[in-house]
Amino acid sequence: MAILFMSTEAGDAEDYLPLLKGHLPDQDIRVWPGAVGDPADTEIAVIAVPEPGVLAGLPNLKAVLSLWAGVDSLLRDPTFPRHIPLARMVDPLLGVDMTHFAIHWVLHFHRGLHRYAGFQRKAEWQPVDYPEAAERRVGIMGLGVLGRDAALKLAALGFAVAGWDALPKSLDGVETFAGSDRLADFLGRTEILVVLLPLTPETQGIINAKTLAALPPGAFLISLARGGHIIDADLLATLDSGRLSMALLDAFRHEPLPADHPFWHHPGIIVTPHVASKTTPRTAAAEIAIDVRRLLAGDMPRHLVDVTRGY
Ligand code: NAP
C-alpha cells in the first residue's frame, strides 16, 4: 500500500513530504511524477492540483484527499474517478485567514476607505461619513465552513449580517435565507455582499446582471471563492452604470488574471491574486494524517464531497 502525493504547484512536495512522513512514519509515501513506482501500489492519493488523467491510471485507488477546500477543478477533469471517496480540506487556519480577509474588506468599504487614496492625490481633506455598524447590512453567500465563520465574526463586530445558502440554516445573530426563491430577498437587503460559495454547475455565473441588479444601489461586492461565480461583462457593466460602488475580487476565471483583462484597470475593481486564504502545510498535513489513519482503520475520511452536487 502506497500513498501518492501529487501537486503541480511548485514547492508543494518539498513542503509536505517531510511533514507527512513525520505524521505517518510507517507509510510508503511517494511523490508524483518521479517516484510513482507501480501504479497498482497506490491506494490513497493526496492531491493539490493534479495533472488531469493521472488519478484514472491508479487501478487500486481507494480514496482521494484534497489539499484544497474547493474541488471544482478536480471535478472538471472528465477522467476524475468519481466513484472513489473524495475528501476536501477543512483546515482551521484556512477559516481564520478567510475571515480576516473578509472582515478587512467589509470594514474597508463600510468606512469608505477606498475613497481616501483619491482624496490624498488631490490634497483634499475629506472625511467620509458612514452608518453605524448595526445599520450596515452585510450578506454572506454560502454558509459553509468558511462563510459561517465569517458571518458569525462579522455579526460579533456589530454588523447586520445575513447569510444565504441552499438549505435552511440557523446561526446565532445572523438572519438566514435559503434556496433560489429567497435569493432576491437576501440580495435586496445586502449592501456589502461577500461570496463564499463553492463553484458548481448551479453557482457558475451566479453573480450576473440580474443578481447584481437585485442589490440596493451603491452596494459593494467582495468575491472570495471562485472567479467562475462572476459573469465578468455583467460586473463591468453594473460598475459602469454606477449601481455597484466597488468590487474586491480575489479569484478569477483564468489565473493568473491575464494582463489584458479589463479588471486590472477598472477604477471600481480591486484585484488581489487569490490570497484570501491558503492551505498551511503544517496544519493541512496533520489533517491529512488523520484521514489516512481513518482509512487504514477501515473508516471513511471526514469532509466527504458529494460529487453529484460538486461540493
Ligand atoms: P463548504 O463548507 O462546502 O460550504 C459551501 C456552502 O455553500 C454550503 O453552505 C452550501 O449550502 C452552499 N451552497 C452550495 N451550493 C449552493 C447553491 N447552489 N445555492 C446556495 N448555496 C449553496 O465550503 P467552504 O469550505 O466554506 O468553501 C467555500 C469555497 O471557498 C470553496 O469551495 C472554495 O472555492 C473557496 N475558497 C477560496 C479560497 C481563496 O483563497 N480565495 C480559499 C479557500 C476556499 P448547503 O450546506 O445548504 O448545501
Report what the structure shows:
The chain is of the alpha/beta class. The protein folds into two domains: 2-91 and 279-296, Rossmann fold (3-Layer(aba) Sandwich), CATH 3.40.50; 93-271, NAD(P)-binding Rossmann-like Domain (Rossmann fold, 3-Layer(aba) Sandwich), CATH 3.40.50.720. 29% of the residues lie in helices and 17% in strands. The protein has helices at 12-23, 72-75, 92-110, 116-121, 145-156, 183-188, 209-214, 232-241, 281-296, and strands at residues 2-6, 28-31, 42-47, 63-66, 86-87, 137-141, 160-165, 175-178, 192-195, 219-223, 244-249, 269-271. The strands form two sheets. Strands 8-7-6-9-10-11-12 form a seven-stranded parallel sheet. α8 links the parallel β10 and β11 (244-249). α1 (12-23) packs across α9 (281-296). It is elongated, with a radius of gyration of 21 Å. The model has no long low-confidence stretch (mean pLDDT 97). Residues 69-70, 94, 98, 142-147, 165-167, 196-200, 202-203, 224-226, 250-251, 274, 276-277, 311 line the site of NADP nicotinamide-adenine-dinucleotide phosphate (NAP).
CATH C-level of the largest domain: Alpha Beta
| CATH topology term of the largest domain | Rossmann fold
Bound ligand species: NADP nicotinamide-adenine-dinucleotide phosphate
- Class derived from helix and strand content: alpha/beta
**N-end to C-end Cα span:** 28 Å
Sheet with the most strands: spatial strand order:
8-7-6-9-10-11-12
Average residue pLDDT: 97
Largest sheet geometry: 7 strands, parallel
By CATH, the superfamily of the largest domain comes out as NAD(P)-binding Rossmann-like Domain
The poorly predicted ranges are none
Helix and strand sequence = EHEEEHEHHEHEEHEHEHEEH
Beta-strand portion reads 15-25%
Number of strands: 12
What is the count of DSSP helices, taking H or I runs of 4+ residues? 9
Please give the radius of gyration in angstroms.
21 Å
The percentage helix is: 25-40%
Q: Return the domain count.
A: 2
Q: How would you describe the oligomerization state of the chains in this entry?
A: single chain
Q: Give the name of the CATH architecture of the largest domain.
A: 3-Layer(aba) Sandwich
Q: Tell the overall outline.
A: elongated
